[in-house]
Design brief:
0% of the residues lie in helices and 39% in strands. By secondary structure, the protein is an all-beta fold.
Length: 220
């Protein structure tokens, strides 16, 4: 009894790759003796090279969908099965735009490049809770409901199985505390004055000299 002759043809699962792949392995029913052929001639005619009784390589592949046939033929019976190999164009390089800094805004305007090949999608990798995209598939969409904090958003460009991504960091600073420089001082004895500003709860304060009497040296 020849066990190989009783096996039905099984071409295996369909395959999909980015178009950088030009060669793929074809594997038919285990322990069978069969042959591999291409059904049709699109997107081009592949070169099929047998590598064992049930396997072969298909090379010279270009972008598109190929259909390959695995056939098992014996004097009294035969069977065949098909599978497809799909090669996609690589997606356009994802460019999420420059990092941004804002002061207590509620809307961010995203600035990604529009992909030539594939479609894009925005996601929030991390940041304060809440907020949403107006349309996450638009490169120039807006993100509404923002609160103070640090956000990282990702712009992913996909063409079926071909994807790549880029991130943008947006810092939304909290509104600083109101500055209170203290009461005016009309009489100061000596050469020193003690300032009496408030301590900010949010932010860092800094003194600057706006005016001074002529000939007075700058403060140290």
């Amino acid at each position: 009894l020849d066990l190989k002759a009783t096996l039905s043809a099984d071409a295996g699962a369909d395959q999909a790759y980015c178009s950088a792949v030009t060669t793929t392995n074809l594997v038919g029913t285990t322990n069978s003796v069969g042959s591999w052929t291409q059904f049709g001639s699109t997107p081009n005619v592949a070169t099929i090279t047998p590598t064992s009784d049930n396997t072969a390589t298909a090379s010279g592949l270009i972008t598109g969908v190929y259909t390959f046939v695995y056939s098992v033929t014996e004097p009294t019976c035969s069977s065949s099965d098909t599978m497809t190999v799909t090669l996609y164009d690589p997606a356009s390089l994802a460019v999420a735009g420059d990092d941004q800094e804002h002061c207590n805004v509620v809307v961010f305007t995203m600035d990604a490049d529009t992909p030539v090949i594939g479609t894009g999608n925005w996601t929030k990798l991390f940041g304060p809770d809440g907020g949403s995209f107006t349309d996450p598939t638009e490169p120039k969409t807006t993100y509404t409901g923002a609160t103070p904090g640090v956000y990282v958003f990702e712009w992913t460009v996909s063409n079926d199985d071909c994807t790549n991504a880029d991130q943008v960091r947006i810092t939304n600073y909290d509104e600083p505390s109101n500055a209170d420089a203290g009461p005016d001082q009309t009489q100061v004895c000596g050469t020193e004055a003690t300032m009496d500003a408030n301590y900010p709860l949010v932010g860092v304060g800094e003194w600057t000299l706006i005016t001074k009497p002529a000939g007075t040296p700058d403060p140290v």
